[in-house]
Amino acid sequence: MTDLEALMSFIDDNEDLERLETLLDRFNIFEALSLERHEIRHSAFIRWLLDPSETHGLGDYWLRQFLQKVIKASDGILGNSLSLFDLDDWNLGGAEVRKEWRNIDLLILDEHNLFVCAIENKVDSGESPGQLRRYREIVGQEFASYRKVFVFLTISRNTPSDAAYVPISYGDIADAIENGLRRRESQLNHEIALFVQQYLDMVRRRIVEDSEIQKLCHRLYQNHRRALDLIFEHRPDRAAEVYRVVQDYIESRDDLVPLKSTKAYIKFLPKCLDVIPAEIESERILPWLLVNLNGKVHFKLEMGPGAEQMREQIYEKAKSLPGVFGKPKSKLSPKYHTFFSETWITPKEYDELDEEGIKQKMGERIQGLLDKKGKAMADAIKGLP
Question: Which pTM value belongs to this model?
Answer without folding.
Answer: 0.55
